[in-house]
Design brief:
- The protein is α/β, with parallel strands linked by helices.
- It has 2 domains: about 120 residues, Alpha-Beta Complex (Aspartate Aminotransferase, domain 1), CATH 3.90.1150.10; about 230 residues, Type I PLP-dependent aspartate aminotransferase-like (Major domain) (Aspartate Aminotransferase, domain 2), CATH 3.40.640.10.
- The chain has 13 helices and 12 strands.
- The strands form 3 sheets. The chain has a 7-stranded mixed sheet, sandwiched between helices. A 3-stranded antiparallel sheet has the order 9-10-12.
- It is globular and about 60 Å long.
- The model has no long low-confidence stretch (mean pLDDT about 90).
Length: about 375
């Protein structure tokens, strides 16, 4: 006999009841735990940013913020040498990824028009797990395409099940959770072959040797997504943006929530763009620590993949990765483990300060002893 859901639950759409929600990284409640699981910048925002936020905490809090984040869009446009109409700002880049699914994707089963699969959202696997959740929410067909064994882009996309007519394709570059960077030339080749919209999700681009922003301003169907969270120490404020053709950005603006970016976030992001040298010094420190940590973990028997992000993916020795997760936690070190088949043998480790890296190494030596 089929059981019926409780009355209140039955009011929720069946699609939502079946939804496997995105699971964010754990926010620890254990005192003294070193948090290396969510790829936050270990260094605080610029003092200029903190001052700007403090000054803005005044009577204007009763007012609505600029509805389109116009001053911030103007500053971003000047930085990227484009027009403000090429930029949309969001409540973190996650909001903008969700807007892209609403703007460019029809529910699965919708007719193909213009040679495109209007109901397909495509992404590589493994990559950011939110993409699959967004596809489910949209009622779209999800098309995960396996990366190569070394997490590089597949050599022959068509043989891997790639849909060149997908309505929307997400590419995390550098990749998460592997940290693998992709050359702009190979990304451009992929974009040229695609008929639908391509979003190059560059949350970690500031830690890489190159970025693909130029592709969004060169190709009318390509968008680059960025965030102020990972590199610019503003996770708490939730500010992200997308850059692309005026037509695509205008479509996103039409369905954006009113006043979607809070005023203090806009103030903080503007001040951030006024002190980029401060952050670039931090990027260099993180990259140097990343290189040292990878080298020293390798000396302990870890197999560490090359990374162009602010984290590394490493296969630990002696015990399964899930066991290492708990043993490191016992040493008050929190890292991230993903249960998917492609990543279950690895730990993802955020690059912290030098002191945090040293604490991780001490804990790893104790576990491996």
């Amino acid at each position: 006999m089929q059981t019926r859901p409780p009355i209140a639950a039955s009011l929720v759409r069946p699609l939502v009841r079946r939804l496997r929600a995105y699971v964010p990284g754990e926010q620890p409640r254990v005192k003294g735990l070193i948090k290396l699981n969510t790829n936050e910048n270990p260094f605080p925002p610029s003092p200029k940013v903190l001052r700007a936020i403090r000054v803005a905490v005044d009577g204007r809090l009763r007012l609505y913020p600029n509805p389109t984040a116009e001053p911030l869009r103007e500053k971003l446009a000047a930085w990227h040498q484009c027009r403000p109409a090429n930029i949309i700002v969001g409540n973190g880049s996650d909001e903008l990824l969700a807007l892209a699914t609403r703007a460019f994707v029809e529910p699965a089963g919708a007719s193909r028009r213009g040679g495109r699969s209007h109901g397909t959202i495509q992404f590589f696997s493994p990559s950011y797990t939110l993409y699959a959740v967004l596809a489910e929410i949209a009622g779209a067909r999800s098309n995960p395409v396996p990366l190569a064994a070394d997490f590089g882009l597949p050599g022959e996309l068509a043989k891997g099940g790639w849909d060149f007519r997908a309505a929307l394709t997400f590419v995390t570059t550098p990749n998460a959770p592997s940290g693998r960077g992709y050359a702009t030339a190979e990304l451009e080749e992929l974009c040229r072959a695609q008929r639908g919209v391509v979003v190059l999700d560059e949350a970690y681009a500031d830690f890489a040797g190159e970025n693909a922003m130029a592709l969004a301003l060169r190709h009318p169907h390509v968008i680059v997504a960025r965030t102020f969270s990972k590199a610019y120490s503003l996770c708490f404020q939730r500010v992200g943006y997308m850059a692309g053709s005026e037509e695509l950005i205008a479509g996103l603006q039409k369905i954006r929530d009113s006043y979607n970016v809070n005023g203090l976030g806009q103030v903080a992001a503007l001040a951030t763009l006024s002190d980029l040298p401060y952050y670039r010094r931090g990027f260099r420190r993180i990259i140097a620590t990343r290189q040292r940590l990878a080298r020293e973990l390798g000396g302990l028997g870890f197999s560490v993949l090359p990374s162009e992000a602010n984290f590394i993916l490493a296969r630990p020795p002696k015990f399964p990765a899930e066991v290492w997760l708990e043993k490191l936690r016992e040493q008050k070190i929190l890292v991230r483990w993903f249960a998917q088949p492609e990543t279950r043998d690895y730990l993802r480790i955020t690059i912290g300060t030098d002191a945090q890296a040293e604490a991780l190494l001490r804990a790893a030596r104790a576990v491996a002893a």
